[in-house]
């Protein structure tokens, strides 16, 4: 019996030393990897193991607490709020960021300046969470003169519903006006045609008077009409001017609305000119003159972005500002690999651009969209920096998330057992999402 092969040649001998495809011995490779394994064990494996063990002990660490710390996850009000907010984060933040990234990636393919736009959108990724938190703490400032969000919001609001220019105005001493309820003022007695009515007010700083305000003028009487003047009855300087009389240095209340009221019904109205003068028709005879509350409405100061109701959506908005660029870049890379023939074939078959996007582009990008969404979900489960920096102390409880509650329990409230339980719970939440992401990536590699 011969050992020769059919070709008459001996089979190749097995290599004596085990080497990788690059020629590196596995022993050498293991030695180079050893420092990384040591660091991984010291910085990841050991803390995880210690946290798991510590979560079963009480506050002092001496007594075994069993599952009590884990029960607190569902009974403690602060942790329940944090868990609820984490669910809101996981549902909305990755979804909106991925959707915006998809829209930006698709639309920037059709414009010349698409690269520049991508650069601008991606730029927030270069900013740390701490810096972004400080930026958005200023953006969401309640004062429209400081906060960009309220400056824009107030500008839009005042375009359609302008606020009053006399929010602090009110009758002074010896005034013929008295409060009428609801912030309005009304004359103490009815007026008659042919009369001139003086309606002096005080309380508006000279530098806050309307731009179109002019030097006040005492109205002249007119037959069959009621005339009058409403003005700022105040002149700087002791002993200057006379109370209740129109002086040359005083300004009229330009734009002040005056109503004639009979039996609770408005029969006529007028708007004061720049010099404060106004004229009412004969139908106002016997009526009382009222300055409606709309003249004195406080200026609109916008929304309380960091108040209990809006603090979580506001912080999610800042997160989307940072991470939409990340989603856009990954989706744009996936879009570059989509066969253009499929898109052109769909257009030739009569599909509209919306149909091409919905039935061709999105299905082909589904793997990329899934990876981006899952990656962002892992990221938001651990969100801490933005919430800690942006949310003020008055509404931090309403914006609380699990990572922030972990910090508060472990350091502010000195409850390391509950803090460890929260960390283990967070790990359990992250592991399935990470497993799904790794599994999908391996499936893509096999393709």
Structure in a nutshell:
The chain has 447 residues and is of the alpha+beta class. It has 12 helices and 8 strands. The chain has helices spanning 26-54, 68-75, 77-107, 114-122, 129-139, 148-160, 311-336, 340-348, 353-381, 385-390, 402-412, 416-446, and strands at 177-181, 184-187, 196-201, 226-232, 257-262, 265-271, 277-280, 288-291.
Rounded average pLDDT: 87
- In helices, the fraction of residues equals 40-55%
Question: Helix-strand pattern, N to C?
Answer: HHHHHHEEEEEEEEHHHHHH
CATH topology of the largest domain: MetI-like fold
Number of strands: 8
Q: Helical region count?
A: 12
Proportion of strand residues: 5-15%
Radius of gyration: 36 Å
Report what the structure shows.
The chain is of the alpha+beta class and 447 residues long. The chain folds into two domains: 53-152 and 305-446, MetI-like (MetI-like fold, Orthogonal Bundle); 177-296, no CATH class. Helices cover 48% and strands 10% of the residues. The chain is built from twelve helices and eight strands. It has helices at residues 26-54, 68-75, 77-107, 114-122, 129-139, 148-160, 311-336, 340-348, 353-381, 385-390, 402-412, 416-446, and strands spanning 177-181, 184-187, 196-201, 226-232, 257-262, 265-271, 277-280, 288-291. The strands form two sheets. Strands 1-2-8-5-6 form a five-stranded antiparallel beta sheet, with no helix packed on it. A hairpin with a 2-residue loop joins strand 1 (177-181) and strand 2 (184-187). The longest helix has 31 residues, at 77-107. The chain is elongated, with a radius of gyration of 36 Å. The model is unreliable at 1-6 (pLDDT under 50).
